[in-house]
Amino acid sequence: MLTTIIQQLINGISVGSLYALVAIGYTMVYGVLRMINFAHGDILMVGAYLAFFGISAFMLPWWVSFTTAIILTGFAGVLVERLAYRPIRNANRVSLLITAVGVSFFLENLFLVLFGGVPEAFPIAPIFQGVLNFNQIYLPVVSIYTPILALVLLYVLLYILHHTKYGMAMRSIALDIDTTSLMGINVDIVISLVFFIGSSLAAVGGILWSTQYPSINPLMGIMPGLKAFAAAVLGGIGDVAGAAIGGLVLGISEVLIVAFFPSLAGYKDAFAFLLLILVLLFKPTGIMGKELERKRF
Amino acid sequence: MSRNTILTILSILLLFAFLYYASHHFNQYTIIILNNIAITMIFAVSYNLINGIAGQFSLAPNGFAAVGAYTAALLSLTPAQKQAMFIIDPIMPILGSIHLPFLPALIVAGLVTAFFGFILGFPVFRTRGDYLAIVTLGFGIVIDIIANNAITITNGPLGLKGISSYTNVWWSYGWLLFTIFVVMSIINSNYGRAMKAIRDDEDAAVAMGINTFKMKMIAFVVGAFFQGVAGGLLAHLITTISPTLFTFFLTFNLLVIIVMGGLGSITGTAISTIVIVWGSELLRVFDQPMHIFGITTPGIPGLRMIIFALLLIFVMIFAREGIMGKKEFSWDWLFSAIKGGRKNAK
């Protein structure tokens, strides 16, 4: 019994850190632009595909391929912001949201047309291969790396946010974008940087996701995107640490529910949103959330 | 009777004359598009009551549509049909034995959906703005997952087949006129003005003594009712429903329609419904092989969606106020426009 609980807890932490990585990207974009970036899950898919091509089409070593994929995905995020979001930065919320969904459909269908809907097998990098066994507790290596990587990246990000000039600019934009631009800060570059960081994190998430569930397809980003989004809101959207906590809470509770009530397995994906609705009933701004300004919508 | 009432009645008669002509002379494909326009318009108009008039950014209509469609279909199918269809697991006994004619089935579908809206209203209206959008989005996803997994009620991913094709232009346009009538009556009443006050400044509305929860709830429940009915009409138009019909894409289409038409304008919603429904039919050519200037392109399935997404981003960038903004069509406006036009001509 104890081993089952520990085993499931570790699985939960691993899945939760994946959600957390993706949720951080959501939350950062939300923080600076006050927009729900629906295309974030599809950026994750782009990252997974780029890593896949690097290894299977260009025969690159796994670490070269992963690094290139992460950087290129970062630039893809910047490109999306530049072409689709920047022209309507000052529009109302609904237009922003529709544009984001439009970008999401565009990416999904572009990849569907280019590469077809058939899932491809994702090559598992050598360091992620293998399963460790501690007293009947089986740990796939990737589920050990995932939380560690998530923690390190979270730490780096918090450091950037709180101890560098660009981080200060990001926090300042989150508070008041107009005043920030009056202070002589190049808002465009800072927002591009936010998109670069957020999209790179999504690519990391995509690669780890594809390693845990080793198949990729153009629609693979939808569910992790929605879950991560729920996680970001659960933690209080706009708060980076909150997103990480939300991701963990979501991942762990989801895995435990399925482990102890196998008959509910089909409802697994619904659970994230039921939990979300429940939390928002008691804390309408999420676990770590603060009251947001009210009148922008 | 005032001039405006007479003109309205005349134009409704004209619409019915057109529908009579259409149902006798147009081919099946065109008639399905006509039905589709009416049903989508019911969805969009009632959706705009929530989003455009009351200003509550809901993303729930795909959930409401699913509830309505499944309820109406389960009620109108005969017990024998239901028994034969549920092959994985038998249907719930109570549902299996009910059988209702079309109109009661639609009304019950609307009421059940309205009830769902009422229940959902409690968590939803504790939150505002984007949080509200997220909770309602979650509702749609939960409904989708239930439709896939509650096999004794919904038949799971297989969906429901053999639903009688009761929906024709009379049913769909009849319900459309009723929907527009009810929604316009609400908009032009004290309730409507209170809803607009909430949309424009919620804190000020509270300060003026408006019961914001009640107003939002009325908009939500009325909207849900008509979305449930529209779901029922849709089920009886296409005769086969499954969870894939009611994904977020449906909500997204409606969102595009109301934003393109102008949030808060029923006239704009009507115009953009026609543009979008018809337009996306026209875009189907992109999925088929094309011959342009002697060059033949192969048919690329999915190209239509790429073009749709791109058009959308362009529309959002260049025309974000929508076709009508917050304005409505009225006869007075039409006549003054004609007169103004004449003056300018002189």
Automatic annotation (TrEMBL), chain A:
GO terms for biological process: D-alanine transmembrane transport; L-alanine transport; L-isoleucine import across plasma membrane. It comes from the Bacteria. PANTHER family: BRANCHED-CHAIN AMINO ACID TRANSPORT SYSTEM PERMEASE PROTEIN LIVH (PTHR11795), HIGH-AFFINITY BRANCHED-CHAIN AMINO ACID TRANSPORT SYSTEM PERMEASE PROTEIN LIVH (PTHR11795:SF371). Keywords: Amino-acid transport, Cell inner membrane, Cell membrane, Membrane, Transmembrane, Transmembrane helix, Transport. InterPro entries: ABC_transp_permease (IPR001851), BCAA_transport_permease (IPR052157). Its main location: membrane. It holds the Pfam family BPD_transp_2. The keyword Secreted does not apply. This is High-affinity branched-chain amino acid transport system permease protein LivH. Belongs to the binding-protein-dependent transport system permease family. LivHM subfamily. It is a multi-pass membrane protein. One of its GO terms (molecular function) is L-valine transmembrane transporter activity. The keyword Cell inner membrane applies. It is found in: Cell membrane. GO terms for cellular component: plasma membrane. It comes from Desulfurella amilsii. The chain crosses the membrane at residues 12-31, 43-60, 66-84, 96-117, 137-161, 182-209, 215-237, 244-264, 270-289.
Automatic annotation (TrEMBL), chain B:
It comes from Desulfurella amilsii. Keywords: Cell membrane, Membrane, Transmembrane, Transmembrane helix. The chain crosses the membrane at residues 5-23, 29-50, 57-78, 98-119, 131-151, 171-191, 218-239, 245-278, 299-319. PANTHER family: HIGH-AFFINITY BRANCHED-CHAIN AMINO ACID TRANSPORT PROTEIN BRAE, HIGH-AFFINITY BRANCHED-CHAIN AMINO ACID TRANSPORT SYSTEM PERMEASE. It comes from the Bacteria. It is a multi-pass membrane protein. GO terms for cellular component: plasma membrane. InterPro entries: ABC_transp_permease, LivM-like. It is found in: Cell membrane. Pfam families: BPD_transp_2. This is Branched-chain amino acid transport system permease protein LivM.
